[in-house]
């Protein structure tokens, strides 16, 4: 193997990784932009809000549809074409916008903006950490997953209890968990990008969309936890 080949192989690997992560962040940003646009449009249209949420069945469908779509996308992405995976991700982002439109009605604009900026700063810092740290974050996975399951169960229980103190604790722990997940998932995606098959564009695109969905979920949940923790309601 020549010196040129020895030097070019790491360079090529770095280029593949950079392209992969750039695609992940670009599609994640597009998904967030679509969610925000749909949420603001829906919140500013009384007629649309009434059509979506005045009927309990329709409201139930709007709230649960994103959950069903994200499960279908995560479970079946390896069997999808690149265009189908991309379309489902954008459809999911739009449905999340419908679901999150109620947030813009409940909380003040200043609270939403402050929570978004804070979430963006924390997400960015932890994502950079996940990309650059030499520490193996694999051991974080089981701990963070158990914490995630715990706050989901606690959230369901609190629907019936209606405890503001429990809600505060759930939100506080949620911020910690999704901050950790941002670093953990970023490092996991870095490894995925390093091993991405450069000659299989479809597989790479599916990986990019799955990565965008993963970080999108981390950001949205971090934003919502911060909003519940520090936000002020309109009443």
From TrEMBL:
InterPro entries: Bax_inhibitor_1-related. The keyword Metal-binding does not apply. The chain crosses the membrane at residues 56-77, 89-107, 113-131, 143-161, 167-186, 207-227. It is found in: Membrane. Keywords: Membrane, Transmembrane, Transmembrane helix. It is a multi-pass membrane protein. GO terms for cellular component: plasma membrane. It holds the Pfam family Bax1-I. Belongs to the BI1 family. This is Membrane protein. It comes from Desulfovibrio ferrophilus.
């Amino acid at each position: 193997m020549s010196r040129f080949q020895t030097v070019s192989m790491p360079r090529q690997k770095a280029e593949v990784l950079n392209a992969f992560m750039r695609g992940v962040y670009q599609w994640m940003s597009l998904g967030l932009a679509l969610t925000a646009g749909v949420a603001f449009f829906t919140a500013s249209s009384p007629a649309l809000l009434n059509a979506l949420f005045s009927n309990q069945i329709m409201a139930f469908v709007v709230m649960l549809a994103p959950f069903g779509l994200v499960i279908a996308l995560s479970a079946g992405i390896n069997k999808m074409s690149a265009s189908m995976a991309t379309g489902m991700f954008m459809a999911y982002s739009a449905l999340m916008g419908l679901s999150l439109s109620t947030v813009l009605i409940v909380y003040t604009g200043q609270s939403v903006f402050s929570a978004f900026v804070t979430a963006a700063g924390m997400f960015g810092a932890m994502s950079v950490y996940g990309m650059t740290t030499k520490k193996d974050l694999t051991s974080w996975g089981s701990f963070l997953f158990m914490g995630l399951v715990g706050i989901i169960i606690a959230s369901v229980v609190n629907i019936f209890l209606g405890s503001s103190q429990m809600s505060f604790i759930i939100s506080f722990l949620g911020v910690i968990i999704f901050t950790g997940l941002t670093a953990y998932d970023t490092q996991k995606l870095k490894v995925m990008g390093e091993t991405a098959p450069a000659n299989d564009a479809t597989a790479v695109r599916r990986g990019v969309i799955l990565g965008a969905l993963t970080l999108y979920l981390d950001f949205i949940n971090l934003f919502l936890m911060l909003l519940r923790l520090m936000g002020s309601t309109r009443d």
